[in-house]
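Q: Predict the assembly, please.
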Amino acid sequence: MYPSLTDLRRVNVFQQASDADLESLRQHSLVRAIEEKSFFFLQGDEAAYLYVLTSGRAKIVQSNVNGQQVTLRIIYPWQVFGALGAVSNQVALYPASAQALENSVGLAIESAFFRKLMASDSHLAFGMMNLMTAYIQEIQERYRELALERVEQRVASALIRLAGQAGVKSETEAGIELVFSRQDVAELTGATLYTISRLLSDWERKSIIQSGRERIRILRPHELVTIASTSA
Amino acid sequence: MYPSLTDLRRVNVFQQASDADLESLRQHSLVRAIEEKSFFFLQGDEAAYLYVLTSGRAKIVQSNVNGQQVTLRIIYPWQVFGALGAVSNQVALYPASAQALENSVGLAIESAFFRKLMASDSHLAFGMMNLMTAYIQEIQERYRELALERVEQRVASALIRLAGQAGVKSETEAGIELVFSRQDVAELTGATLYTISRLLSDWERKSIIQSGRERIRILRPHELVTIASTSA
DNA sequence: TTTCTTCTTTGCGCTAGCGCAATTTATCAC
DNA sequence: GTGATAAATTGCGCTAGCGCAAAGAAGAAA
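A: Predicted assembly structure:
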């Protein structure tokens, strides 16, 4: 049920923490199973917990008043999400929702407790700062792409990024398999479902990828790198 | 020359730090005067210093390979910038450049030293985390706008945001005065100079703003709020 | 197997915003 | 004041990508 200390060490943020800290952290946590399409938390909820995904896959999405949405991050096992509330001692609200992409399990850690742990163990604070700086760099890069690059380049970049994040497990000699719908890719890249469908069809004709229902297999990653950095 | 301890307390990140820490921080700092259009640091430089702006105004810009650029943040006095390198003990590179918008002065603090201070004083670490979470929330919101909203709405949001950041000093009964060129606004909103010019001309006809060379005076802020949240 | 649902594809028309080019306006240096 | 430089404006044509609609696939359920 609860992850072991060994498992918790797989979490980057916790890497340098003491056993005692990790143990007490478990005491202040809940295991929550969330089924596909349900939410760990909703945008605007009070950020009382931060999460470690222990199995499954999730996405962090932000909606505007019309209900249109963008995907900010994809979460894989042993990643931390929903942590903004652990920083301020004021009441904070989640700025985005966390939705399970498949049946998932997360460890919910009390934000207030985690804040105390960070105050007493600087390793935890540095772990969190490293998480934040890495995320800032990614979102800044994506922001720049959204402002300056065409859809084709943004999608190529997004697939490369996803391939890197999804990790080795999905990489075989037959290519790198990504499990995302056209709609998912659209929300990740600031494009529409239709444009993504047309683009992937085109790439499939050129044998850069091979695609199916909610599946994209990257056959020639280097081609995507080229497209991503093609000017104008 | 060097800012006083009282001045340094105006920096959010330093608010809770001890006098001794602030004093030693000054010892490990340099005062750097940068003239308009010159750079505090360039994208790709080794992030050996983090900065506190003590006077003037600066922008953080990220460029792509074609030299097109987006503006990520505007920096006002007593704000910290270029701090990513203080987090990791690996060598880090600035992911963006910091360019002075007018003749400016900054206090350059050694990243490695600041990292040690954060490790010994959790208040500093929390100050930094608060800075990062606030920035993350802003950039996420702008990312969402860029993906989902039209130029008109993004510009309205940007002006509102700038008005809030520029602060009270520029707010009179005659409106809120912002000192930015059309090009600046374009780089802040992911639009072109031409589109911004046309849009501002239109708003001026409607008496929402009044504008001049490198100047925008917001006459009816509420109109902008309405535009920013107008659907489709 | 058949039916339902959900995802995907593709044709088609449309428009927001780009970007060139030429002009006008404001500011600065001398 | 005069000329030089940089910023801003505006007309015009163009196209990337949107978004509707309708049809086609691929699973899931019955």
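Chain B touches chain A at residues 62, 64-66, 68-70, 72, 84, 87-88, 95-96, 118-120, 122, 125-126, 128-130, 132-133, 135-137, 139-149, 190, 229, 231-232 (CB under 8 Å). Residues 181-183, 193-194, 197-198, 200-201, 211, 213-214 of chain B lie near DNA strand D (CB under 10 Å from a C1').
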